Amino acid sequence: MTTAVPVRTAGPDTPRARAGARAWTRWWPAAALAVLVAVPYSAMPLPGLLDGPVGSAGSLQLLALCLVFGALATGYDLLLGRTGLLSFGHALYFAAGSYATEILMAGAGLPFVPAVLLGLLSGTVLAALLGSVSLRVSGIAFSMVTLAFAQAGSLLVERDPGGVTGGEEGRAVPADKLPSFLAGIDNTANLYWIALAYLVLTVAVVQWAVRSPTGRVWEGIRENERRVEVLGLRPYGFKLVAFVLAGALAAGGGVVHLLLTGGATPRTTTSDFTLSLLVMVVLGGSGSRWGPLIGGVAYTWADQRLGDLAGSDTVTGLPQVLRVPLSQPLFLLGTLFVVAVYVLPGGVARLPERLRAARGGRAP
Q1: Helix (H), strand (E) at residue 171
Q2: 67-87 residue pLDDT tens
């Protein structure tokens, strides 16, 4: 008599399935990066998502902005999700990189590369100076100090002292100061690749920092700062490192944004701009590896596309009770955010975990 041995298939909980999931988790970022690199060569249309083919100049411009703000949100999460610091002045360092680079090129007449390097240095030094003051307090007091600095910077830009900042009009980048491969609509693909390189650099720096010994201290500060002090460590120095690193990454984003949009605008100096970053991080999932990136991309895409929807003939033809609210992009964006936060607590990055928990019949 023989005994039948049951064959164990590769279900969701078998070792083979788990090994396959780990392999996919390890390699999908490289596959996604390869796809993003090849985007400018594609002529595939994406109706509803983009106005034209993927590789067209307008689509590449939108995709590049999504990448920039995805990276910017990832850098901002070093403060919010990794260290537990709620800053309302992060936009100031983004604007510093943008304005300083433009002023050095157009006003001081510096070549492109030195102007970019000095622009990055300007944003980093400003973050170090203001961070050293702001971090003398903690909690809501820290948030209010960063908000005060942001408001002062925004007011300074709008007042346009000495005609340096351009006031409400901002400052346009002189085309003759840019390298030939970055000037003109024909070179939009090059700007897209620069935005992608900025994203890759930001993600790499953030992941390296988070996994370093300093990153472990950041995690301890976020959970219980007093316990870190009991261990003999000074939280102030570690928080300042996070603040300066996030500011330097933001300044780099300001330089890339300057190239993409062709100028520095006062909107990037306001605290509302930082609030948009906060929404991006919360939408994607604060403290997660890919959440802020996903939130930044999704928010930027929605911000651009919902503006087009609000002015479309479809909305114009609706009854007034529907036309008035739907013609306001901020109303649409706010409603979408509230629904997303309610349906996906913890952000989009927590969705796979919640689905696995629901499939296993347990609470997430």
Answers
A1: strand 171-172
A2: 999 999 999 999 999 999 999
